[in-house]
Amino acid sequence: MKTKTIVVSDKMQKNYRYQLMEPIGKNFRSDFEPELTPKEMLRLGVFGGRYMRDCASEFPDDWFSGAKFHAENTPGHNPKLNFFEVDASQPLSVWRKKGWIHEDDPRGWFQWYCRYYMGRRHEDDDRQIKRWRAFKRHWSAVKNNCEKGDLSCRKKQRQALLHWAYDSRKI
User: Which residues, including other chains, have CB under 8 Å from residue 87's CB and lie 6 or more apart?
Assistant: First the structure.
């Protein structure tokens, strides 16, 4: 694949550049097997609809067709737009305070995942994949405490799993 340079200029980054090294949605590391694509996540409803509106031009248009977005020019987010209609997010300020944000992905894990999905490979891949793998503990908690298919059980945990590309509707 011929590498392609992406230039990002949005509310959180100005003139940030990265290379796409792999075909979109292909050649993931063997220890990273997300169950949902970014497009699927946005359509299901994640992050209270408050995500990536100002950086949509960086990604394929079809990712945003049918995406559940919070009304523009309104503060906060709307948990009712999440698939499980619950708030399962921490503010970005908490992520920053805990040191979970890499400067190249100022929006956090989902931005990293979107760029990885697009074909970027980055110095932060090891850390982010390790975090993604560790989040699977929530899958076990849902599986061990809920009847299979009971989507009303542990809705907050299920929503958080969706935020990390695990399809918690299958549990």
Answer: 48, 77, 79, 156
Partners of residue 18 on adjacent β-strands:
6
Q: Could you count the other beta carbons within 10 Å of the beta carbon of residue 59?
A: 19
- Are 109 and 132 spatial neighbours (Cβ–Cβ below 8 Å)? yes
Q: Distance (Å, rounded) from C-alpha 87 to C-alpha 81? A: 9
Taking the domains of the chain in order of start, what are their residue ranges? 4-170
Percent of the chain exceeding pLDDT 70 equals 100
SS3 55: helix
Rg (CA), the chain: 16
| Pick from 136, 149, 150, 111: nearest CA to 34 | 136
**Strand stretches in the chain, DSSP E:** 4-8, 16-20
**Amino acid identity, position 34:** P
Mean pLDDT of 110-115: 97
- CA–CA separation, 90 and 78 (whole Å): 13
How much is the average pLDDT of 37-57? 90
φ/ψ of 5, rounded to 5, equals -95, 130
Which pTM was predicted?
0.94
